[in-house]
Amino acid sequence: MKAPTVIVMSHNGLGDIVMTLPLLDRIDRALPVEGRLIIVTKSALEENFLRLFQWRHSPEILTVGIDRSFRGIFRVSGVALKLRGTNPDVFIAGVMPDSLFASLFARLIGARLSIGQEGKWRRLGFSVGHAWPEGEHKTSYFARFADLAGCLPPNGELTYPTLKPVARAEATSGERLVLLSPGSQILETHKRWPAKSFAELATRLLTQFHDIRIGIFGGIHEQALLQEIANGIGSHPRCEILAPPRVEDSLAIIRQAECVVSGCSGSMHLATLLGRPVVGIYGPTNPSITGPYSDKAVIVRLGLACSPCYRPQFTAGCGNPICMTMIDVARVQSAVIDSLSGCYGPFPRKIKSTQATAPSAAIVD
User: How many other C-beta atoms lie within 10 A of the C-beta of residue 78?
Assistant: First the structure.
């Protein structure tokens, strides 16, 4: 009898990769030992991240790239045909939004059971559709794709796969590390809290607490943004830029943090994975859906009538993200103090996204 082959799409950046980990963990645990797990991801960064876990099945990982040109689509089609050659039993595409492309990709792969998001295009390529209840967190939503594939968890809990041992960053004795992570994907800068606000927050915390060390944290491609914040703070012996070159180095640094302050970003989800306290600053995106999946989180948001507005076909924002720029530094400072004191939540649930296309300063929450 042929060993089952399961293919899972997990390709939307580090944040979504972290939120698909319980799905991948369920499948990895449920597959027979001789089963084959194939994970399709976006780039070498995500591939390297996935290789940091102790998988039961040593999954094969394929990258599809992010090229949206005709050449890129042709290449992705080639990946689909390559996957078809594995004679797959199950194809899971929870991270792919309902679209003609997603359905055609699934049809090319030709798995016996293909599970995608419910929508108008689903029947063209997927045999099963999974509807997304409004306000449900991505982590639990993605995990239920494994249930539909018959990979049921023994206790119903969502669990992450085990990380391989990660080298610990050198800690400074007697100082608590607070990481400020200001970045986002380059096409989603409207999700960022202003650099000057991060600089003021750091200055306030350094003045208020003499045992706090500030790390201005981000990727090596975010050096200019990190330096802008550092310039706003000025020279200070307890403040430094931390821009590690590898994701495993980032994990080592985050593991040392007493608190991670971030917008909706990969750094925030990495902190959640490691069980570190998080202060999440939210505006365009919905914390019920993409917030830190953690009981050690404090969410700061204004609750404007126009937010959260992030949705398919409206991912670039309104051009004037007052839902982020109007968030007062004192509010975030208070949230950091609560986090450092072990006071979290309550976590916002089932917040409804809006259909707004223009900013509104009216507060509804």
Answer: 12
How is domain 5-148 classified at the CATH fold level? Rossmann fold (3.40.50)
Name the percent of the chain in helix, strand, coil, to the closest 5. Answer: 35, 15, 45
Fold of 176-340: Rossmann fold (3.40.50)
In angstroms, the CA 287 to CA 304 distance is 14
pLDDT at 171 over 60: no
Kindly report, as residue ranges, where domains of CATH 3.40.50.2000 are found in the chain: 5-148, 176-340
For residue 321, say if its preceding peptide bond is cis, omega within 30 degrees of 0.
no
pLDDT average, residue stretch 334-359: 92
- 330 contacts: CB under 8 Å, gap ≥ 6: none
Rounded Cα distance, 207 and 55, in Å:
45
Quote the CA–CA distance of 301 and 16 in Å, as a whole number.
Answer: 21
Question: Which residues have a Cβ under 8 Å from the Cβ of 156 and sit 6 or more positions away?
Answer: none
How far, in whole angstroms, is CA 238 from its chain's centroid?
29
Global confidence as pTM: 0.93
Give 7-58 as a 3 state SS string.
EEECCCCHHHHHHHHHHHHHHHHHCCCCCEEEEEECCHHHHHHHCCECCCCC
